[in-house]
Amino acid sequence: MRVAALAGTMLLGACAPVIVGGIATGAITTAQARSAGEALTDAEIKVRISDALLQQDSTLFSQVETSVTEGRVVLLGAVSTAQDRERVGQIAAGIADVREVINELIVADRGWRDVATDTRIDTEISARLLGAEDIVSVNYDIETVNRTVHVMGLARSTAELQRVTQIASQVSGVQQVISHVLLTTDPRRRRDNT
User: Fold this and answer.
1) Which range marks the domain in which residue 141 is found?
2) 36, 26 Cβ separation under 8 angstroms
3) CB within 8 A of 55, min separation 6: which ones?
4) A Pfam family in this protein (predicted)?
């Protein structure tokens, strides 16, 4: 996933990808529960966190995944020490427009088999969500760390959220599902008319 993000960043200088990306972003944000401005701000936050981690420590950069929804940052991955976990949380909290940091980093070694299993789980859950007619899958971000699935995003209803977590829990290899999802009616959501 990180390679795709870096490759995407390198392509930003070319005109064609920007045009295609703008069209795709417009189509996606139409279905999203957050505005295009909020989606853009979240993408900027994610880039700033990645840049800050890369500047601090390239190893941390490679170990940490971030999910950002309306300024709420969820940090995921496995780091080497408790000090690294704390440092990443502090870096994320210091980024402009971050409203909340949920630090789900674990202190553990993740081998290539663990990463492969987690990637398979992510892919399978994402495919199932995409195929579910009663779920707006673009509103959810799925990230698995050591077989624990973290669901982030915005749910239209409690029923939709329950369906998402049910689908995630039924995938082979999943040990636990943790939801960081807010309902679209939750008062903690950012309301800034962007």
Assistant:
1) 112-183
2) yes
3) none
4) BON
Contact yes or no for 83/105 (Cβ under 8 A): no
CATH code where residue 122 lies:
3.30.1340
Global pTM reads 0.79
**Which residues, 6 or more positions from 53, have their beta carbon under 8 angstroms from its beta carbon?**
60, 61, 64, 88, 91
pLDDT in tens, 74-96: 999 999 999 999 999 999 999 99
Higher pLDDT, 60 or 3: 60
CA distances from 60 to 79, 94, 134 (A): 7, 16, 37
- Which run of H or of E encompasses 73? strand 72-79
Count Cβ neighbours within 10 Å for each residue of 23-44 and write b for 16 or more, e otherwise. Answer: eeeeeebeebbbbeebbebbee
Domain membership flag for residue 55:
no
Coil, helix or strand at residue 98: coil
pLDDT tens-digit map of 133-160: 999 999 999 999 999 999 999 999 999 9
148 contacts 176 by C-beta, under 8 angstroms: yes
CA distance 139 to 186: 15
Indicate the average pLDDT of the chain: 86
pLDDT at 31: 56
Residue 27 within any structural domain of the chain: yes
